[in-house]
Fold:
Amino acid sequence: MRKFTSGATRDADQGKLAYEGFLSPLVLERFAQYMHRHRTLPDGSLRTADNWQKGIPKPVYMDSALRHVMDWWKIHRKLPVKDGIEDVLCAVIFNAMGYLYEILKRKKETP
Structure:
């Protein structure tokens, strides 16, 4: 139990997930900007923000992730690439998150 100088009490926070510490608002905001920019389809329509959660095959995520990792590696080696480092890293994050999402979704569906 935690007791504060005000007299208020709360249960202990030990063993609880520390989202505020594990995540960065700077990174999440930049990632959201990247994702929002990629919502526009070639015909000009806007896909929903959670469209990717409908399901994308893991091999598609892997192929895309590796292309972006190659760009990341090239940037690290000071070689030219089409996109900047922030977009490349956001793309890596997206593909890793999507791949993990498919694993977790399947795990939840099949006990």
